[in-house]
Amino acid sequence: MPRPRNDSELLPAKDRMENAFWELLADREYRRITVTDIVHEAGVNRNSFYYHYSGLPELADSAIMHLMQQASPAIPGPDSDPGETWRTNMDEAMHDPAARQRIGRLALIAGPHSSPELVDSLRDFGRLTLADVLQVDPEHVDLKTELMLDFTVGGLLAVLRRWPELSDRIEPEDLLNEDLAMLAMGLCLSMSKADMLSSWRRIFRDDVADAAGIAAAATAVIRRQKDTDA
To answer: What is the pTM of this model?
Structure first.
């Protein structure tokens, strides 16, 4: 018997079936989920299911694709502050209930109830989402960008596998880290069409100027000391 739902009168049948997919995947292994389970959980009939989907794999792809489309992180551009952009994204991930639900659901794809097919689907949609955000054509990318996309998606999958344990002990301060912000900035710039050299020069120009001033002052002190000793 399906669990009581409060969205059956509010959401379209397709949305209810995708929600049912996530609820069932949290409860059992993907290979044990059936179309009958989905329609009972969603409160729809089999005709409605097959009107929208050819089978369970297509429903799974649709559910994963829609979650990835809803995830729209701010991307640091060549004229933005990477630390501030990172803070905006991390604040949303840690404090927005809808964002945390998306992360929790995507973590199911990387978890023990998943399957190799679901992981491949998440990897493919993750790659397409990144390419779209960065405005690069995933079908016509150079080797560097292709490797960076694969590297980034692989890292996201690794974090999602650990999310059940991380979500209980991670603190916002752990994520609001300058090193993480610079890593994210570097990955985004590497995959985008931005001029990396000019971007890094702009980001570090103040630090470089400060370092140059300190070095000049230190050199002057050393020279004065040598003159005094002489």
So the answer is: 0.70
